[in-house]
Amino acid sequence: MTTEMIYSTIEDMATKVLKDHKITEAPIDPKKVAELIGLSVVEVPHDNDDLCGLLLKGDKKAIIGVNALHHSNRKRFTIAHEIGHYLLHKNENTFLDHHENFDMVKFRKNSSPKTQEEREANSFAAALLMPAKLLKKNFTSLQGVMSNSQEIIQLLAKKYAVSPDAMRYRLINLQLISAHN
Ligand SMILES: [Zn+2]
Question: In the beta sheet, which residues pair with residue 97?
Answer without folding.
Answer: 53
